[in-house]
């Protein structure tokens, strides 16, 4: 496995661990807000996967998915 780019401006893992960032995003997306209903777990997971490499460290998302896999 290669080391992730720690200097990438959109997923700088020096400040927030990638898995923690994905977990916080998952909670935010699945929680109801006064202005919108929360997404389903599957829809939120799909959105996080789509953002891997742009807003999230792709290696952290692989780990996040392995840890949150319900099977």
What does this structure look like?
The chain has a domain at 18-30 and 38-68. With 71 residues, it is mainly alpha-helical. The chain has 3 helices and no strands. The two termini are 25 Å apart. It has helices at 18-30, 41-51, 58-68. α1 packs across α2 (41-51) and α1 crosses α3 (58-68).
Please report the total strand number as a whole number: 0
Query: If you average the pLDDT, what whole number results?
Result: 78
SSE order, as H and E? HHH
Instruction: Tell me, briefly, the overall form.
Output: globular
Terminal Cα span: 25 Å
Low-confidence stretches: none
Query: Helix proportion of residues, in percent?
Result: 40-55%
Radius of gyration: 13 Å
Report the structural category: mainly alpha
Q: Would you summarize the structure shown here?
A:
This protein is mainly α and 71 residues long. It is built from three helices and no strands.
List keywords for this structure.
3 helices; 71 residues; 0% strand; mainly alpha; globular; 49% helix
Describe the protein's topology:
Elements: H1 18-30, H2 41-51, H3 58-68
Helix pairs in contact: 1-2, 1-3
């Amino acid at each position: 496995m290669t080391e992730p780019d720690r200097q990438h401006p959109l997923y700088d893992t020096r400040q927030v661990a990638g898995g923690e960032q994905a977990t916080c995003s998952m909670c935010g997306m699945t929680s109801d807000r006064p202005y919108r209903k929360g997404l389903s777990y599957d829809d939120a997971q799909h959105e996080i996967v789509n953002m891997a490499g742009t807003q999230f460290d792709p290696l952290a998302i692989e780990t996040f998915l392995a840890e949150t896999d319900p099977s």
